[in-house]
Design brief:
31 helices; Serine Threonine Protein Phosphatase 5, Tetratricopeptide repeat; about 50% helix; elongated; single chain; Outer membrane assembly lipoprotein YfiO; signal; mainly alpha
Amino acid sequence: MTPSFPTRLLAALPVALLLALAGQHPARASGDFTCSPSWTLAHDTFSACGNMAMLAPGNDTRVNLVLLLADLHPRPKAALVAPAGAGEGGGDDPLFDWPSLKARLFSGPGESFDGGYASGEGSRCRSNEAGTEGFEAVINAAPVPEAERAALIAARKGLAPTCADGSAGLPDGIADQVRSAPGKAFLAYLQGAQAFYAGNFADASARFAALGTADVPWLKETGRYMLGRVEVNRVQVGAFDDYGYPKGADAIAPALVAEAETALGAYLQAYPQGAYIRSARGLLRRVDWLGGRRDKLAAEYAALFALDAPARGLDDGVLADEIDNKLLPSLKAADTSDPILLAVMDLARMRAPAKSGKDTRITPAELEAQRPAFSGNPALFEELLALHAFYVQKQPRAVLGLIPDAARQASFGPLQFSRQMLRGMALEALADRNARGFWADMLTGATGPFQRPALELAIALHEERAGALDKVFAAGSPVRNAAIRAILLANVADAALLRQQAKAADAPQHERDLALFTLLYKEATRGSHADFAQDLALVPADAAAQPTDGNFGSLTGDVAVGVFSKPDVVGDYDCPAFREIQARLARAPQDAKARLCLADFMRVGGYDGLFLDTQPPKTELGGTPSDFPGKPYARLETYRAIIADPKAAAADKAYALYRAVRCYAPAGNNACGGAGAARSERAAWFRRLKQDYPASPWAKDLTYYW
């Protein structure tokens, strides 16, 4: 994978995170450990950080699922979490990863999470703390003598199960201390709980079943519920390998699955509004998952789709994680007729096939066969047909026939936004002259999370391709996203635009600094040395020469423009301050020592491979060749030119040979950019340095070539 920007700079981009995939590993959605987003609108290849606020094949399956669920149950704006830095010109980015979407939508006060049911029973001991609290609350309200109550509460707290090392038993003599009928009922529950936590499921089942005649309603209901949990844990014995992954339905006796389903179903039927209703439903889904019953599991999820988050006890984010982990990896179209699940599967099957793999993308006939399932949501089916036409069939004109123009809306739901964005993408693909106006018409209604920046990306791409980059940075421009503007400044802007933004009083400080840094860097390395001398005056006297994050010239990190004006000497070749190096090159562009000093500035500053010398692909934002004169800088090419220059002084040639060889230290990989050199060429440089300039300090220092 070729990143849009050097990997070392990705940490500074909020949309490009190093994903530590701990815990669950969704089989369909994720897999990247590092990520470089593709700054474009069309995404048909999965990227963990390349999601957008519209349905797309390249989206994480969980993102597509959440967008579809949000269309069924719109969230009030008051429930949304404010974007990070929204008050300081920050906010949503057009491209994002799954954790960012979850934090944006589901991390507000009072959000409903399932307490771990996405992971299911997991450890049977995970409910011990809550169980202790519940037991104490109930027994305090029951007609149990005070002494017995205190003994039973202490015994419950003393269980302290770990499910790995066994559980602490009930205190000796507890049965002799409890003589009342209500007290004995609570003791029977504790004995069942002890057996359950210890893994003695037969004894636990017998004791919980006996609570069916208890006079305390909590004991009767809890006993019925625990019978289901006992059977779930029977199913799980031997169901997982040493790494915690399920072995598959073949490793589980069908009778155990049926018994667990019966026990949980009995609780749900007896207590349709019970205290454990959400847990029981989650455990039933776990049983269906372990038993390989995809059709039943799909039906369970489809039933949950009809409920809003408070009613189901799961927010859309938790639900999407669970479905992605437990259902989607094995789900087939024949297993369900639910339009939401079908749409998520269909989108994943529109992804571009691997270059060396078989094309298994969904066909028009397969899509058409699903039409009856979408009878209640024809707009979604039209969207799928249009997405297939655009991404798979490469027929953007067909999109226009499927999706009418509805750009002017007060607000867009996720599906409406997806439909209109796809129409705009089709207009762009057809080079329709109305495309720019279409995007502008959508701006008013783009009020949902991540919608406005997606439109800003669309407009920025249009202006860039039209050669109208100045419009992006004009007063009143709708493109305000900092990352979009930074990419265009770093890759496409010419000297005049960079100079304009460096001076723009109404631009954010970071943008001004980035524009000035880019201007000075490109002037210094691409031959505009006289312009550099004039523009250096724009650097404030107190400008930092070292970024606080240690990363020079990051797109979104600190930009230390003072590095160009600091008076320090440069490198190892008796070089003057950088401004003097540039002044010498302005007077004599072929001055070998000044060129070597420029290379030392690059080497010492760590600028090799800087993002300003690496342009994104032409299909992405920033991929249009800039009008800035000159070529990207590479130290190795400077060394080569001086080595071949018959007019270069011996000392300069010796230093150039030394540095050219050291470009490959210590691992034999070129760290200086340029076309690269074969090992034979590096050997020739080494021999020439040793033979022609044996008295130079560089020949004496170099003892090896890589």
